[in-house]
C-alpha cells in the first residue's frame, strides 16, 4: 500500500518554544486515523504542516509522495476542515457549498444535499446567523462531500450535539465504505471515535508517544484494585502508568500490559480486582498531568 | 446505533464471536449469506477494515467461505465446528471461574452440585 502521509523527524519551533518535536509517522492510503492528544499538544500544528500552511523548522514530509508546498497536484487532493473555520459572514449556507463544490474535484453535490437535509441546516440562512453547532455541521458537510483523497478534520464537532455527532459517524463510515479514502481526524472524544479508527497516534507535548493499530491498543492496559499493601505487592516489576489512587486502605493502579493468565491468578490470590481500561482512559493516563508522563518501570 | 459491549478486547474478535453466536442460534443457517463487511461496519459503527478482520478470522477457521463476487457464506458443518470450539472454552471461561468464586464463599463441591441441579428443575 502506498503512503499518503510520510513524515520524518518533523520539528516546529517558535523561538524557544518547541511545538512539535522530532515526529515521524506515516499513514497508508485509505485508512481512518486518529490524531489524539491534549490541548496544545501540537496536533493542529502537524495538520498545518501536512496541508502546507506552515513550514517545518526541520525534518521532511511527503504527501502523496511529493512535497506539498505550492504543489497544486497535491493540494487539490486535500480537504482540511479546521476547528474554527471562517466562512464569509454574509454568505448563506448554500453559497458556501457552491464555492466548496468548485474547489474539490471529487465533490458530490447530491451527497452534499442529502447531508444538508440530515443535519437540518437551513440552506438560505446566513453564516453569521448560524449557531456554533451549525457552523461545525457546515464543515462536516464540506469535508464529507469533498471526497478528497486526504480529508483532514481538526476537532470537527465543536458545539455539536450527540445526535449530530452520531450522524457524522454514520455518514463517515457508510461513505468511506463506498468511496475509500484517507481520513485524519483529531478529537477529544476518544471513546466515541475509537471504534471507527484503524490507526491511533497520540501526541503529548509535541512528541509522538503512541502510533498503533486501534484494535491492538484495546486491552493493552488494565487496572488492578484492592488493599493497598496487596496492590503494592502485585505491581512489583510491572509497568505502572498512573500515580496509584488511594481511598482509605484501598488503591488502584493502571498497568500497561495485557493481563496474562498468571497475572489473573496472582490477583485472585491477593484478592484484587482486575478491570479493563478503555482507550480513552489509557490515553488520559499516558498524557495526564498527574502521571509521570510516560510509563515508569518499577523495580 | 448498536454497541459492542466489551471495551477491553479487540473489536474484530467481538465481531467474529457475534457471527458465531448467530450461527449457533440459527440466525445464520449453513450455506446462507453473511452480511458484508460494510454492513457490519455501519451496523456497529466500526471501521470496515476491522469488520473485515473479524470475518477473515472465521474464513481461516473454515467457518465461513468466500464466493467470488458474491460475498461470504456459512460453511456446511460450520455449526458443528463452532459448537465444538465453544464447548472447549466453556470449562475455562465459566466452570473454573464458578469454582473459584464458590471456594471464596465457602461453598462445597456438594452444595455446588445441588445448586446446578436446582437450576435444572
SSE blueprint:
The complex is a heterodimer of chains A (299) and B (121).
Chain A: E1 3-14, E2 17-28, E3 32-37, H1 43-50, E4 58-63, H2 72-75, E5 78-81, H3 93-103, H4 109-118, H5 132-146, E6 150-154, H6 162-178, E7 182-186, H7 190-193, E8 199-204, E9 207-213, H8 214-217, E10 222-227, H9 228-234, E11 239-240, E12 245-247, E13 250-255, H10 261-270, E14 273-276, H11 279-287, E15 296-297
Parallel strand pairs in A: 3-7, 3-8, 5-6, 6-7
Antiparallel strand pairs in A: 1-2, 1-4, 8-9, 10-13, 10-14, 11-15, 12-13
Chain B: H1 11-25, H2 37-44, H3 48-60, E1 64-67, E2 71-74, H4 78-104, H5 109-120
Antiparallel strand pairs in B: 1-2
Helix pairs in contact in B: 1-3, 2-3
Distance between the termini of chain A: 42 Å
The CATH topology label of the largest domain in chain A is Rossmann fold
Number of strands of chain B: 2
Largest interface: A-B, 24 and 22 residues
| Average pLDDT figure of chain A | 89
Give the overall shape of chain A: globular
* C-alpha end-to-end distance of chain B: 38 Å
- Tally the helices of chain B: 5
Strand-residue proportion of chain B: 5-15%
Keywords (chain A): ATP-binding, Nucleotide-binding, Transport
Pfam families (chain A): ABC_tran (PF00005)
Domain ABC transporter (chain A): 5-230
Protein name (chain A): ABC transporter ATP-binding protein
Amino acid at each position: 500500500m502506498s503512503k499518503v502521509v510520510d513524515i520524518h523527524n518533523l520539528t516546529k519551533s517558535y523561538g524557544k518554544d518547541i511545538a512539535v518535536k522530532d515526529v515521524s509517522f506515516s499513514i497508508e492510503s485509505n485508512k481512518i486515523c486518529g490524531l489524539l492528544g491534549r490541548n496544545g499538544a501540537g496536533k493542529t500544528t502537524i495538520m498545518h504542516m501536512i496541508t502546507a500552511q506552515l513550514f517545518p523548522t526541520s525534518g521532511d514530509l511527503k504527501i502523496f509522495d511529493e512535497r506539498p508546498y505550492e504543489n497544486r497536484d497535491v493540494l487539490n487532493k486535500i480537504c482540511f476542515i479546521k476547528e474554527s473555520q471562517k466562512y464569509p459572514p454574509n454568505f448563506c449556507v448554500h453559497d458556501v457549498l457552491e464555492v466548496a463544490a468548485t474547489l474539490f474535484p471529487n465533490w458530490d453535490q447530491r451527497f452534499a444535499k442529502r447531508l444538508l437535509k440530515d443535519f437540518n441546516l437551513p440552506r438560505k440562512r446566513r453564516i453569521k446567523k448560524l449557531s456554533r453547532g451549525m457552523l461545525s455541521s457546515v464543515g462536516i458537510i464540506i469535508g464529507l462531500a469533498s471526497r478528497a483523497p486526504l480529508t483532514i478534520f481538526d476537532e470537527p464537532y465543536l458545539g455539536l450535539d450527540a445526535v449530530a455527532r452520531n450522524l457524522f459517524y454514520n455518514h463517515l463510515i457508510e461513505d468511506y465504505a463506498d468511496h475509500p479514502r484517507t481520513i485524519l481526524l483529531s478529537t477529544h472524544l476518544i471513546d466515541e471515535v475509537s471504534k471507527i479508527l484503524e490507526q491511533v497516534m497520540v501526541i503529548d507535548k509535541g512528541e509522538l508517544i503512541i502510533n498503533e493499530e486501534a484494535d491492538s491498543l484495546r486491552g493493552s492496559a488494565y487496572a488492578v484494585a484492592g488493599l493497598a499493601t496487596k496492590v503494592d505487592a502485585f505491581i512489583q516489576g510491572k509497568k505502572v502508568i498512573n500515580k496509584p489512587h488511594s481511598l482509605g486502605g484501598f488503591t488502584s493502579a493502571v498497568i500497561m500490559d495485557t493481563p496474562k493468565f498468571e497475572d489473573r491468578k496472582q490477583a485472585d490470590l491477593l484478592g484484587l480486582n482486575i478491570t479493563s481500561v478503555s482507550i480513552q482512559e489509557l490515553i488520559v493516563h499516558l498524557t495526564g498531568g498527574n502521571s509521570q508522563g510516560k510509563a515508569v518501570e518499577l523495580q | 446505533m448498536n454497541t459492542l459491549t466489551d471495551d477491553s478486547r479487540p473489536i474484530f474478535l467481538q465481531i467474529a464471536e457475534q457471527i458465531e453466536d448467530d450461527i449457533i442460534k440459527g440466525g445464520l443457517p449453513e450455506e446462507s449469506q453473511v452480511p458484508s463487511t460494510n454492513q457490519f461496519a455501519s451496523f456497529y459503527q466500526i471501521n470496515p477494515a476491522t469488520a473485515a478482520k473479524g470475518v477473515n478470522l472465521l474464513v481461516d477457521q473454515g467457518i465461513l467461505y468466500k464466493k467470488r463476487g458474491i460475498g461470504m457464506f456459512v460453511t456446511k458443518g460450520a455449526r458443528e465446528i463452532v459448537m465444538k470450539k465453544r464447548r472447549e472454552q466453556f470449562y475455562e471461561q465459566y466452570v473454573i471461574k464458578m469454582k473459584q468464586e464458590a471456594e471464596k464463599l465457602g461453598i462445597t463441591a456438594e452444595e455446588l452440585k445441588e445448586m446446578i441441579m436446582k437450576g435444572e428443575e
